[in-house]
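Ex. 9. Protein: Dipeptidase.
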Amino acid sequence: MKKAECTTILVGKNASIDGSTMIARSEDGGRTIIPEGFEVITPEKQPKHYKSVISHQKIDDADLAETPMRYTSAPDVSGESGIWAAAGINSDNIAMTATETITTNSRIQGIDPLVSEGGLGEEDFVTLTLPYIHSALEGVKRVGYLLEKYGTYEMNGMAFADHDEIWYLETIGGHHWIARRIPDDAYVVAPNRLNIDEFNFGQDGFMADTQLEELIDTYHLNPDRDGYNMRHIFGSSTIKDAHYNNPRAWYVHNYFDPEFGGKPSDQDQPFICHANRKISIEDICFVESSHYQDTPFDPYGDQGTPEQKKAFRPIALNRNFETHILQVRNDVPEEIAGVQWLCFGPNTFNSFVPFYTNVNDTPASFQTGPKFDLNKIFWLNKLTAQLGDTNFKVYGELENDFEQKSLAECHFIQHETDKKVAGLSGKAVEDALTEANQKMADQVYNNTIELLGNMVNEGHNLATLKFDLLD
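Predicted structure tokens for Dipeptidase:
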């Protein structure tokens, strides 16, 4: 049932460079390309009746009765497996990303099995939650309610943010769940494993379903002599974790704090961490596009052996289809506080665009169609990435220049727009933000076309099938 695997980054407001909360995730898929789009779901577009495509689980209409809010969405455009809204910010500037595929173990599955018939999954959570919540904590409570009532057929993590708080929730078995508030001065990196470690039932900043503590004690699930470590109790510590999950966290930790040290395969890397500096949007862009640069494990690097270059799964890879940074800003008016930084395709070869979320429509180039179309940025990025992968030494610098240029131009448009809307209100603000979003989308699209042209020109003499007149 699961087709996506991801890497989540969370940054508290006192850990960020500008005082904003930021939750980010790369949405990765499998062997088949999954085209992703960008939409605004207005209240009239929100489903009044809901049934999951994958599990056929029907949601009681009473659970959709509250008037929904407008929210942004990054859905799978085919709709074949449901909506998969992925991430967005609603009109109350509440952000949600869902979901991070996580691990489990046989002990909890033998007590509370995943719901094989029915239940909810990644397909459903954003659509059933984001338009109905007014704080990050309400997001936790809403998802907790849905899990306890309907169950889930997969293990997932998800994050919620508002101006002040970030909460991260993980599902446990078919119906149970845990959640932890991220300290304001901390960051989190969560790859595809159960991530929450130290847990204190009943204390501020920790939440769980009411039966979970008793379940742990009744079934003798805790392997530790003292305290509760949820990763030890409900998660995994496998060879796959050592090669697929842990190295991604290790690389991010050492980027944010070079004194972190450790080894890529370390199983007990901490959930709550602190950087040696304040974290910027560019920092998150870098780690979400990283592939173990300056280590022997970089597939594009010169340091490692062929075996080392294939030893660990990087964050950026061909299966990145959509990546977002949901930013709730605290130094601007409420009308422009929500920003959904968004990019499509493999992260090493694209650029984020900071879309204002107080809008009712999105740029056409980000409204992806299911078929190959170079007018759509998703497909254009897939093309540049596949060409760039053929010779990273040649094309890598071109991409770096493109990304720095694009981010700088988007920052400039954003600064100008923030100033422009200072004296506006209501629809005038929405119109100005829609215009700014279009400018940024057009600028990055044109820059990507320019990048592709530069790559073609640079690669002209690199073709294998050639025979010069002097040969």
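Check your answer against this statement. The chain is about 30% helix and 20% strand.
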